Amino acid sequence: MNSLHTKDYIVFFFYFILVASYGLYIYYKKKKKSVSASHDYFLAEGSLTWWAIGASLIASNISAEQFIGMSGNGFKMGLAISTYEWMAAATLIIVAVFFIPVYLKNKIYTMPQFLSQRYNSTVAMIMAVFWLLLYVVVNLTSILYLGALAISSVSGLNLTLCMYCLAIFAIFITLGGMKVIGYTDVIQVFFLILGGLVTTYLALNMVAEHYGTSGVVNGFNLITQKADDHFHMVFSQSNDNFPSLPGLTVLIGGMWIVNLNYWGCNQYITQRALGADLKTARSGLLFAAFLKLLMPVIVVLPGIAAYVLHKEGNFQTEMLQNGELNPDRAYPVLLNLLPEGLKGLSFAALTAAVVASLAGKANSIATIFTLDIYKKNINVNADENKMVWIGRISVILAMLVAVIIAPLLGIDKKGGFEFIQEYTGFVSPGIFAMFILGFFWKKTSSNAAMFATVGGFVLSVIFKFLPQFVNLSWLKPFGFATLVQQKDGSMIYEIPFLDRMGFVFIISVLSMILISLLDAKRGIPSKGLEVDKSMFKTNTGFAIGAMLIIGILVALYTIYW
After folding, report:
1. Computed from CA positions of residues 189, 192, 194, 196, in that sequence, does the dihedral angle turn out positive or negative?
2. What domains, with CATH codes, occur in the chain?
3. Using one digit for the tens of pLDDT, what is the confidence trace for 407-418?
4. Distance (Å) of CA 74 to CA 220, 302, 479
5. What are the DSSP calls for 469-520, one per residue?
6. 329-338 residue pLDDT tens
7. Longest distance between any two alpha carbons in the chain, whole Å
8. Please, what is the angle between helix 267-274 and helix 342-367, to 10°?
């Protein structure tokens, strides 16, 4: 039944009071004098511990699209979708070793600031406006709408009411600044993981009981036997899910671009570490990497368990939407089977994931608008207090815009994960090329960066629509094209999304190198960052932790290849 009971409301109320009280405590009792009030508000300068940074990274990353979308993908394609989580763990180590030292050494606090400092103000302003539009129109709206949809499906509450409540809750946390967000995220992650594990326990135990036994271990062993095809990490070309996860591309291709761009060149994510010292930032990223290893247990295994039960004749009606099987129904169906109290806990976990993501995204919007647009172009003489208030106003306005336009975008029809990827994937390769060459090749010119910004987008659009005009069957033997059914029933060879990103990235890099060399010949100067080898040395504890994560990943991919 899609409703909450008294015990569920008590559990949820406890969660709400705990988060709100702790947020107020952090805001009033942990205030300290800062060199910059704005940096303290936007970045929590020097006040976040490694565990707060790590927890905040995960809380900001995990939202409704993971709980609902990844469980749905687990139902459809199995454990392979975990590559987004497990490859992220490896990516976080790379970001900690090579990216964060560059940012901190050069006192970079926002991504537009990096572009301005490394290239020029034109590139920085174009990307600042783009990021604001992307964060508000795509990311904030999709998190808000999908979160409200998921919560509504579990609780039976009105969708619009859920949207407004989530927005208000997130604003309440965000107005306290990054310090409050960071520390309240620790509680959010606790509820997120605990509630997620409860759902996984229920799902696996249901499988075990269906086959006359009990316990999560027996349940897990049974789903590996009954759904053996759902426990392969690398798909062959014959697999129906190959276009989504094209073979080895998840290990040596486009998946790296997705992850490195998201975790290393994204204000929304890197902001958590930019206010800390290098050791603390690295420890926080390492902690987040360990938590990433755990995420598939919470968001993927329930979907596979639901698949096994559905195959055995369960949830035949519940899994339908408009008369068709909808894999995204898997997680809400399982939640609705939880007993009173535990359902409230999982409901709190889902809410925590959504609110934390909304708060983090809203703070990033406020940071970019205030520091990179308002301060530099609208009111150059704005004092610290003024900037903080402008940041708070921009949070409220961004959330208001998201609430208004979210129902109009058709996010639920497209699918949340697909919705986000479709719009961010057009620019990710160019942005990552611009950042990676900007980091490590001092000759990279501003003209080359401008090409990556505009040319990368144009190339992505060309590769997207190329199959409509050109027969790409010749790419199939190389694994770079697969037959995909169109809306009109016809079959066309398309380049998988991750492969398209790889192609655009390579072309962008080569073009940037050529443009930079030509600019150097013409005497156009470039502005390299301060980078030296000593920046990339790590302490023994970090090295041991990183090797442990890599070892676990190698073992997982070996077992479930």
Report:
1. negative
2. 38-417 (1.20.1730.10), 425-530 (no CATH)
3. 776 655 544 555
4. 14, 8, 23
5. TS--GGGGGGTS-EEEE-TTS-EEEE--HHHHHHHHHHHHHHHHHHHHHHHH
6. 788 888 777 7
7. 77
8. 90
